[in-house]
Amino acid sequence: MYYMYIATGIGVIISFLVSREKTLKALRIAYKRLVKILPAFLTMLILVSIVLFLIPEELISTYLGGNNRYAGVLIGAVLGSAVLMPGFIAYPLCGILLQKGVAYMVLSAFSTTLMMVGVLTYPVEKAYLGTKVTVIRNLISFGIALVVALATGLFFGEVF
Amino acid sequence: MKHSKMLLIFGYFGFLGASFLWGFEPGVKIGRNFILFSIEMLKILPCAFVLIGLFEVWVKKETVEKHLGAEAGIRGYLWSFVLAGTTVGGLYVAFPVAYSLYRKGARLGVIFSYIAAAAICRIPMTIFEASFLGAKFSIIRLLVSLPLVIVSSILLGGFLEKKQYRLTEGK
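Structure tokens for the assembled complex are given below, as produced in the milestone run.
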């Protein structure tokens, strides 16, 4: 995270030294774009806060830890699509589940959809890509995640 | 914003406020989630948009067209992976960045592969993932998903370009 602040800081300083005008213009663009998309982010945050209350981590652990791996892959993919979690929460959770004996392919389905498929980011995505493309992109991503999960199962010898 | 939506948002915050006042557990939990995620995003978004601003001002349209546009061919997709690898945050940061690239002349397919790759192959995230699930897990994921991402992005991009699809911000 910090390297982003440093990179941004250095970028702004260098930009300012080269051209004051352009830098101010860049900051104006940044401000205008950010303000324009904030309502969509607010909607997203509200959705996230409610969904995470309805589907807490413990519930995810319970559902992913079932006996049937194939059902686990599907449940993992659906849960991963439905929730939004930063990596620093999601991967430690996956690590714990792995130690509890949850299959790699289930964790793969969950973590890949978590990152690629965004039901909760829909308000923001829609604002940039449009409704139709947003839906198509998410469906494709869901499919890719399932293929990845199956491939993971194959490589770890969990499929048969 | 529409009135009905405004009303819902006011209702939401009213509910949170009342929950905190009277200690209504579900409301307090939802409020905590909201604050946690807001902070998480506020840490990233201003930075991301300043970088987008600098990009818009300094990077020439021709440069983006050359490397990420129609003439770049498959190289454009490889570039999108490099850009995605260094993206911070998640999908919600990738969307505005992708939009900015698109306005500068990147083609749609490249935008889609950038978004997908920003979701699954950010370098810091992948390292973090590997530390919990093992390098083998991460390598399989990357090797299987990236070719699928390229193929599906080319197909979707081509399909939309044929239909003359245009991205417009804020609809």
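Residues 1-54 of chain A form one domain. The CA atoms of residues 80 and 115 of chain A lie 8 Å apart. Further analysis is deferred to the final report.
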